[in-house]
Amino acid sequence: MRESNAARPAVVVGIDGSQAAIHAAQWAVDEAVSREIPLRLLEIIPGNVEPAPGNAVGNVQMEVEYGETALRTASAAVEATGKPVKVETEMVQGDPAKILIDESRSAAMICIGSVGIGRFARALLGSTATEVAEAAHCPVAIIRSRQSRPKPGSPLIVAAVSDTPDGERVIDTAIHEAQLRHAPVLAVGVLRADTADMPSGELDRRVELWGKRHPGVQIYAAATRTAITDFLAVMDRTIQLAVIGSSDADQVAKLIGPHRHPVIGHAECSVLIARS
Prior knowledge:
Elements: E1 11-15, H1 19-35, E2 39-45, H2 60-79, E3 87-93, H3 96-103, E4 109-113, H4 127-135, E5 140-143, E6 156-161, H5 167-181, E7 185-190, H6 202-213, E8 219-224, H7 228-233, E9 239-245, H8 252-256, E10 270-274
Helix pairs in contact: 1-2, 3-4
């Protein structure tokens, strides 16, 4: 059922037949094109499905047919973008989180729709997305379909910058995304209670330095002593993507929130966990 592609780097998208998964695949196209690597669409059918007679729910053949249809639909959506990306499709059986985490060992990025993987867990952010966000070995993007009317101004890419070891990785990733998506960056200095205060003007100095390195990207600065989720909750600009470090991966569920009832006011805000 699966070709051996694990040794080849690719941007891997979890496909489950949902519109959110298709949107994640379309979002991931630019990631693959910019790296000049394939886009791998991975359909995962449940590993505990037992054969059943006739048309009973849970029949393996029905799951396979559903998966093949989902892959064809996602492939067609990617091709419709008209962008020069090589598309690979795979179908595997097993636990979605375990398979995606295993894929992350060689993938350039894992992309998941915000409702998770699997037809049985679409009402809320799936446990699959949360588990993969925290345990993957590569960057993980959890992509929301836009639900609300955009607010005035260009949609921002927000980077949660701190003095943690992955702080520079976060801003580098945010700038890369800004270049891909022609968007401004808001670098939010997250001042943690358990660390020394960032020196006065340090964030502004960093932003000025980043701006000189990347003159084509607009970079702004803001600081907060609250969690990044609380800061984003009161933003009056549309946020298309929040880039966080692996140390904040446990905030994913709160950043995304339930599919139709987000915890914060940015139902359109996707999340990217930056990792080397």
